[in-house]
Every structure is written in structure tokens, then in C-alpha cells.
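#structure-requests
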Amino acid sequence: MDLGLKDRVYVVTGATRGLGRASAEALLAEGAKVLVTGREEKTVAEAVAELGPGAAGLAADNADPGAAARLIAEARSRFGRFDGILVSVGGPAPGFAADNTDEQWASAFESVFLGAVRMARTAAEALTEGGVIGFVLSGSVHEPIPGLTISNGLRPGLAGFAKSLAGDLGPRGIRVVGVLPGRIDTDWVRQLDALSGDAEASRAASESRIPLRRYGTPEEFGRTAAFLLSPAASYVTGVMVSVDGGARHGF
């Protein structure tokens, strides 16, 4: 199936590793051009070298109010156009309600929530009909995940913002989608499993609750994100798509 991604240009934040990286790889495999971002110049340069032709990079922090405008300008300068953005950020500090500090909450709000809102607002101003804004969120949008209190507090609000934005931008032909990973086999999820003290047992217990009885792969997530960002999904907007092996049982 041709997703219609050839020569389209996307910005993918947090794309030096994990789910952002997998999404960038999937877009590139379909012929898109991708500007990848991350906080550190070294890791961005390494990612661009590994991703190969079609990729460019710029170090940026989502919490920086000026980052969004710089990224979009860079994408246009490198590739001549701008068709969409996938806002992916690292998970906020783990912890239970009594553990997380005000500083951890404030830092996460700036990067996970407000930074993503700024990225989306700036992208919305720059996009034309056919453009798309995607958010990498979490299964915590639908139900809280033990030990991830900050994520449980911020991700559902960001999903609500995304749905509101979809209604605002729909008349202009611009789509907004969210992708909700469950247990995907990334370094971040392995770190979460290790918090229990027995990572292997924690993973086995998690897999037993997933209908497909396994963690997802970053590649599976990336292909889903690429489809949702593509013209092939041109009538899909305002939705939160779970990529979790069936772990969420509600509709």
C-alpha cells in the first residue's frame, strides 16, 4: 500500500531514540523527508548519520518557547516544505503521588505538556490543507498506570487539547491525531520494569495481561504513527489510537 508519503516533510521531536526514532524510520522508509530533533547535538548528529538520506537534524528542547519556530524554519530550509509534525517527548519522572516533587511536576509540565502545546500551535499556523499534527502520548490517557503519577496527570490533559485542536483545525483541512503506546519494548519501558526490583518478573506479569501476550516493538509503533501521519489516513482526525496489543479493554 502506498501511503502517499514520498517527498512529504515532517518534523519528529524526540527522534534520537525510542518511539520517536522508530516513527522517523518508518516515515523515511516510505519516502518522506524527516527533520529529527533531540536535546543534545551529538545524539542528533548520530541519529541523522544512522537514518541516512532523507534525514536532517537540529538539537532542540521542547520546553524552549522558540524551538517550534526554529524547527519548522529548518525543515523548510532543508527540504523546501513542511507537511506535519509528530510531537514525541520522553516520559516524565516515575513515582507515586507522594514521591514526585514540585520541581519534577514543573519540569514535566514545561516539556511534556506546555512544550507540546507550543509545538502544535506553531505548526498549526504554518500548515496548510492536508497537514497533520500528531502526538505520542500514553495509555495513561485512558487509565492511570501505577508508578507514573506525573504522566497520569499530564497525558490526559494533552489528549484533551489535541481533540480540541482537531475541532479547531478541521475546517482548514488539517488533521490532529494521538498515538497511545502501551508496553512497547523500549529502554524506557525496561527501566520501568526494573523499578520493581525484578524486571523479568515484572515483564512476565505485564505480558500476561496483554491479549497478544507480548510487548510491542518500536517498529510496530512507528508504522502505525507513519500511517496516521500519511495522506492514506486523510479522513482520520481527533482520535487517540492505542498501540498496546489489546491491553485496553474499553472502546
